[in-house]
Structures are given as C-alpha cells and as structure tokens.
Amino acid sequence: MTDTVWWKRGTVYQVYPRSFQDTNGDGVGDLPGITARLDHLAWLGVDAVWISPIYPSPMADFGYDVADYCGIDPLFGTLADFDALVAEAHRRKLRVILDFVPNHSAITHPWFTESRASRTSPKRDWYIWRDPGPDGGPPNNWLSNFGGPAWTLDPATGQYYYHAFLKEQPDLNWRNPAVREAMHAVLRFWLERGVDGFRVDVIWHLMKDPAFRDNPVNPDAAPGAPGITRFLQVYSADRPEVFDVIAGMRAVLRGYGERVLIGEIYLPVERLVAYYGPDLTGADLPFNFQLIQTPWRAEAVVDLVARYEAALPPGGWPNWVLGNHDQPRIAARVGEAQARIAAMLLLTLRGTPTLYYGDEIGLGHVPIPPGGARDPWERNEPGHGRDPERTPMQWDDSPRAGFCAGSSAAEPWLPLSEDWATRNVEAQRSDPASMLTLHRRLLALRRDHAALAVGDYRGVPLGVEGVFAYERVLGGEVLRMVLNFGGAARSLPLPDGGWTVLLSTRPGRTGEAARAALALDAAEGVILRRE
Length: 531
Ligand code: GLC
Ligand code: CA
What we know:
Largest sheet: 8 strands, parallel
Distance between the termini: 22 Å
Structural class: alpha/beta
Oligomer: single chain
Bound molecules: alpha-D-glucopyranose, calcium ion
Helix content: 25-40%
Radius of gyration: 24 Å
CATH class of the largest domain: Alpha Beta
CATH topology of the largest domain: TIM Barrel
Number of strands: 17
C-alpha cells in the first residue's frame, strides 16, 4: 500500500493568500509570505498546499475574477516568486495545488472586452449572450449566487450576458471548443511550471441548459436564506454535458503523471458522487462538503458517513472538508470543545482531508466592524458575507500577530481575532493541550499508521446516544475512534479485547490501557489501537 498516490494518502491545507503572511507591509498576504511559512506546513505535517487565486484580477471577488489566467497579480508578487514557492515547497516534499477558475473570467479580461465589442466579434461566442426576454427584461429567471438577476444588459449591443456570480464575473461558454482549447492551454502552462494539481472553482456550473429554460421555484426555500435559494438550480448547473468537459481537463492532467483534479461541488451526496465521472474519468476528488452541511449531532454524522461510503463508485476515493473561505469556521459553528472532535474526525475518516488555514489554531468567527465589510456578497445580501472566515493568520504575539512584516506595516485588510495575543501559532506550539498540538499529533498518526491513511472504514454500532465509533482497518491493524459529541462524561463498553490509547483530544492519555470499558469526558475523542 505504500505506493498509493500522494493525493490519497496526503492531507491538503488551504491557504487564502490574502490572509496568510504579508511580507511587504501593505496589509495583504503575498506569495513570498506563503514561501516564508512553508516550514510551518511541513512541521504541522500536511502534504499539499492549495492556494486560492493569485492571478491578475480587479479583485471584485478577491481573485475569483481572473483577468489573466497565466500571470500573478502584483499584489501577490511575480511569476518568479511563484516559481520560488513551488521550488521551496517541493524541497520540503509539499505539493502545490492551484485554484483554477474556468466558469467565469473577470469583466476586464481581454476575451470579454473583445466579446462584448460587437455581435459579430470573433470572441462573441466565448461568453453567454442572449437577446432580452419578450418584455425587454432578462432572458430567463436565473439568479446570481450573490443576489439579484444573473443577467446584465450590455446597452452597446442590446444583449444580456450571463453571470452566475457578480456582474463583474461573466460566465464563459464551455460549449465553444475554442474556450476549451484556451483553458487546456492554461492548465498546461501551470503544469509545466510544476504545479501538482488544481482545485476547480464551481465545476458543477460549467455547462448550462442549451435552451436556457427557467429554473423551477424551490418549494422549501427558507426565509432569510440567500435569494438564489428561491429557485432550484435545475437548468443553470449540474447538467449532464459537464462530465465531458471535466473528462477533457482530466485528460490534460493525466499527460503529466500524478497530478490531482479537485472539483468544488455543492450538491447532495447522490449527485456529488456523479462527479467522479463515468468510469472515473471525472474529478479525482469531488469536494465533499457534507460535514459542513450536516447538523453537528453524532447520529446525523454516523448516517452521513454511511451514506457517503455507500454512494461512492467503485474505485472512487473519498474526501472530507470542515471549512473553507466560503463557510463559517468550524470552531464558530460547533464551539471550541467540539472543534477538537471535529479535527479528530476529519483526520481519521477514510479519505483525503482538507484543512483550512487557521482551523489548526481554533480560529473562530471574527466580527467585522460596521462599515468594514470587504466581501461583495455582504454588500449585496447583508449577513451572508464571508469576511469573518477570511481573517489573517495569527503567528505570534508581535504587533499584528506577525501577519504583517515591519513596524510601519499597514493595518491587515481584515481584523485579527480579539484573542490574537494568545491564540497564535507560537503560543500553541509549545502547549501540549493546544489545538495546534492536537492537529500535529493527528497528522503524525496518519503518517505512522497506514490503516488511518488508506485502511478500510467500518462503523461500530455502540448504541450509545451522542457517541460515534468507527474503525480503520488495514492488514492486522485495527484502530478504533470513539468520539463523544455530547456534553456529558460517559463510560462505554469495550467488550472486544484489549486496547491502548494512541491519542485523546484530552492530553495525557496516550499509552493508557483500556479493558472492558472506556471512560470519556464530555466532548472527548479517543483513538484506540487493538492489542
Ligand atoms: C467559488 C469560490 C468563491 C467564489 C465563487 C465564484 O464558490 O469558492 O469564493 O466567490 O466560486 O468564483
Ligand atoms: Ca503584501
């Protein structure tokens, strides 16, 4: 099993580049900053770093609006900085995964400038242009994910263009072979520069209904939910033709050996697993966000893991995610004590884990002062903004938590959490009880025990409310995880043989023998090894 491909055994760590490390004192993180912090990632024990977009961009959506797919925004550095990052990462055996944003470009991209110039422009068909509806309004009822209609009229040519996100993010037309060719060339450009894979932005959006039919009303739309949820995205996303597009990207990657294709997909389990593609020609890892969307109760999570495991296609490799730059942080969602259980769950389930920067120090929801919102979604639909989970990484107790270099540095682009002077990497490194130490130990166990990295999964029905128990098994090794999602201490039966504690979320239990029964504190999780 030792020759299993790296992206199956490894752990991915997501860096939001604006918020990781600022080296030139402008208050925004940059590429030399990521390079300077690679030792932290190597020390922590992750295997790959996924970097959210770093391309030239007007930053309407903070880089998810790309103006040049083959460059680096000066805010983040230069191509030379990028090459240095890749070289330094590879020297530490860390892989580099780029964010690829093929669904839409920036409104300033030369392709769009050319496309909008006239109805007969050679690039007109690179984007999605439609005549107005019969009443002169938008061509159909599709809505933008960031609020309001998904169509904007371009008065110069009298047609509407489609944008699933901001009007500054026009959707590309993936039915056009020239678009596919241009995007494949982009993938090759970065593969040749040494990147180890891509996380593909909103991959389930790439193809839309060719007849542009209206989306049906969602009968279950919750009051107060974002406007987009008023309709079911039946015709605007998750179309069957998308699998051919994904297979095309995958084929480009396969020409370069063991590179990984990760797809961002927010769909229910049954639809999500379709993105492994027919005969596994799709994404290697269709991102599984189910732990973000499932209520934090043991019974719900037990059921989720069983359903996901059962739904995977033969040979499809699972993956798990607790947070990212679009979702409230795990510590904010479930509280600090349960966030420790969540870390143990993420790093012991079967499948590639993705860890979001800052979660390893238990960073929570950072309130944004009035008037301080940066996320365009917050301005369109207040309350839904993503700034609170994008705040700067906290490294030490020096000014600005070590995020900005130099004493004359600007204020960070988003605020630090109030407790930054104590909640930081340096303070937690030497604390055996810290969240950081817990993450490092869990990652070390994943490396040392092949059963955790690649072993089989089996649920262990304990029948004890609020407790999730499962095993990872490989060859003769049996590891059992017992996680107490509840707020009360428990004693659990352990009838089947002798066990040794490998790790607990509560420090000091490693090496303890467990016979017949296991005592668990409130919100305690334990990894046992069968003797
Ligand atoms: C993805 C990104 C998100 C971005 C959106 C539009 O969901 O993760 O941050 O705003 O796509 O590109
Ligand atoms: Ca900077």
